[in-house]
Amino acid sequence: MAGTTTGAPTNVTQKYNKGGIGESTLRPDGTLKVTGEFAYSSDMWHEDMLWGQTLRSTVAHAEIVSIDTTEALKMDGVYAVLTADDLPAAKNYGMEFQDTPVLAYGKVRHHGEPIALVAADHPETARRAAAKIVVEYRELPLITDEASALAEDAILVHENRDDHHSPFVPHPNIVHHQPIVRGNVEEAAKKADVIVTGEYTFGMQDQAFLGPESGLAVPAEDGGIDLYVATQWLHSDLKQIAPCLGLPEEKVRMTMSGVGGAFGGREDISMQIQASVLALRTGKPVKMVYNRTESFFGHVHRHPAKLYYEHGATKDGKLTHLKCKIVLDGGAYASSTASVVGNASSLSVGPYVVDNVDILAIGLYTNNPPCGAMRGFGAVQACFAYEAQMDKLAAKLGMDPVEFRQLNAMSEGTIMPTGQPVESPAPVAELLRRVKARPMPPERQWESSEGADVRALPGGLSNTTHGEGVVRGVGYAVGIKNVGFSEGFDDYSTAKIIMEVINGEPVVTVHTAMAEVGQGGVTIHAQIARTELGVQQVTIHPADTQVGSAGSTSAGRQTYMTGGAIKNSCELVRQQVLEIGRRKFGSYHPAWATEELLFEGGKVVTNSGEVLASLVDVLEDEVVSVEEEWRHQPTEAFDRVTGQGRGHVQYAFAAHRAVVEVDTELGLVKVIELACAQDVGKALNPLSVVGQIQGGTTQGLGVAVMEEIIVDPKTAKVRNASFTDYLLPTILDTPTIPVDYIEMADPKAPYGVRGIGEAPTLSSTPAVLAAIRAATGLELTKTPVRPEHITGT
Amino acid sequence: MDFLRPASWEEALAAKAEHPTAVPIAGGTDVMVEINFDHRRPEYLLDLNRIAELSQWEVGEEKVVLGASVPYTQIIENLKTELPGLARASHTVASPQIRNRGGVGGNLGCASPAGDSHPALLASGAHVEVESQARGVRLIPIDEFYKGVKRNALEADELIRSVHIPKATGPQEFSKVGTRNAMVIAVCAFGLALHPEKRIVRTGIGSAAPTPVRAKAAEEFLNAALEEGGFWESRKIITPSIAKEFATLASGACNPIDDVRGTANYRRHAVGVMARRNLMWTWESYRGEGRKLEGAA
To answer: With an 8 Å Cβ cutoff, are B173 and A463 in contact?
Structure first.
């Protein structure tokens, strides 16, 4: 293609195009998923393929004395049994630190760590062979919390660290620590009329996506590998996989396959390297599918946390200062712990103005299950604590909890504790006003002419109450989440846009490496292409590594980033198409010489709507193709001592009001309404926006009342790796979720969009907790709340 | 693993006699979970799905003979008048899909203390009809059926054919505590049935002891108190002190453990609360029936 693919797009704003942005176009994968016809990564099949199986550690911390694979290898149908000694190249991988062994060598550091791999011609054979591998352990003392991690004689989870944080951490069992100091807390505390302290505990939540880790690795004739997997970020996987296979990146060709949910849990590698090394070793395609139990060990979880908070306020309700320490348990391997620490620290104040802060967040190495990315990423735990504090302060001051929050709410121009000003709308007080102004669900809403409707009561169909012991509670919360990758990370996305004429129609192909994990990018991308290029036919090319990185589908960034990249590439395509038009038809009409030309309904038109030419006539058999990277404004690292720095790209805000009925005698909770108000910047697909907000809200509800991976503190073993005992909200646990979104454009973001998927997960949890506290009068400092906490048993 | 598929009840008994280690499977909602989790690897699976009579029930004069494989959905839809307690309990079993497959025979065969149907069977005073090729039929009273954690009174060559459950002669209730509002395994459960014709109350407790149990001391106390106070005739309101003592004794009947689903203390506490509520609900409805009778007279 002639012409340059770089250059600044013009400032022309495309007008309305059918199926473009702002419309609730339907998802192409929607019907398939609902009817069970969608092909997930676990549905793939290849002729002559083998099945891969892992063997995982049964203890949390031990030296590996020996691994005996003799009996496994003897089994009929077994093609390969691999241990760390058999790995072809690099033995470790990792997203931020390369601290994670492909297969454990020397020692195991957590329960369920992969130790060996089997490839067999049947999954059951593979499973049985794995069970025949004998591993002899010499158990080591366990590091399970802050006290054991930082004890003077504490055993080191990782000796000889050489990661970029290691020279700065106070103890080798601390992955990363981030202080933030601003103002003068000691002086400010003297001005406080009330001081409120609190100690909070956040349980280990799991992403619990329904499609387990799975994929297919096919060895290629060139010695490379074709890898079909469900992931959140193809190129990040690629960077980690290739060195472990001893292959150059171009010989590892990755294609996205059907993703059954992610929520952060697919940001790290799971079976990718395992299947690939088995395929390279056997020369056969290898499929791997974790079962549900293994899935609980196959991905990182949300960091459990201990949070220690002290706030002060004057008697007229102004916050004076914040002192806090947030301890995040990163588990045995770093994953994204360091970034989660940065987030927890920089967002620990919440969406409030506090000029004097002394903050410290640390992430630990322990022998608990590794933790990393999950929707909300460090901001969730902090929100749980600061919102509990806000209620305690309001109560102590005798103020309304919403008015107290509004009085201290941040707004555009507020300086964050990191010194970074908030440079786009921050309608925190308005969001609170909106949820508070909603009418309340009627009292005793379970009563009907036929008696109590148990479905509307705590316990539901289990018929535990007909109204006895039931007390209503109402609670509010609001949160702040950063959008996009922070702290100086070179965060970009790439979009390749092709425009051509097929069968007499202008057609656009959008090719990116964006992972569609359920967020609806496939819809948004086509909508942006229609808006920018005025065509109806848009093809979304499968995501693969034959195009540049799209970055991760996480941090609420894909609509902003890959959406922005598509918009940018489309604008460049428009310029090139116009140049062709000018070359062919420039002399026909003087308007061709102007800058203000639009693409509408398959035609080039002037700003006043006069048609200059059809795109078909302009393009004829020319193909215009642009592949370009696009970046958000740069950020910078937080100072390691003061925490100062322009670390974040954008903020998202959501507020919730929770209305709950609590059976105070049995300690059971029914959330009956969870209203949300959120600033979404610009709703590119209103239906998707509401879906994301309702989903995020429900995930927050889950960790408020039921979701928790329970790790035995004595053994560091997971006790509930199943959906029988790791409970997710059912439809009877999911309340009415009225969504009130407002659109206050962020001038720096494409179309003014704001990442929306994470913010509702933050405030939903503390809102539910506040409502349960209101109903019971209990302090309830731990989430999830269990019946034992409410009943004191 | 061999998969045996008898076409008739007689063939099934013969197969079980020949292979006493065979694990019977009907809906598979429990056995398949065990197999999938590798908790057991039976030598033989004995598929009962071809035996149509196991999925049938018969409503007689005094009792319902419920085939071992009658799915919970059928109990909920067809037997809620005759067996209100069991129908209530059936409604709390897992999800609609599982309720379409699973039945009481499986609950009894597995004999997990967390099985949802046990408290209702205990409260109504059911009998389990089992049969072997060698010794024929025997009826095991439900009180003698549960022998230990996941152990029942069946001999190795016996199969469960049906459950004989007395038709309700008075109100029955069932409650189950779980930490989610549907599709949840019991943290603990409680069932209660009034038997006005015998002037007794029977109970059943689930998931709060190694086996499903009756709250016998609570029953004895309550039966005496009701008798003494003439409650059955007068249908007067049960005093709070009676209800409280009944609840305390029900808690005392528990012998629970701490596990990932709940603490022993909570189970004891919750069983007491459910016992009191179940008593008040059933008694209130017994009083309501009395008022209706008076109105009719």
So the answer is: yes
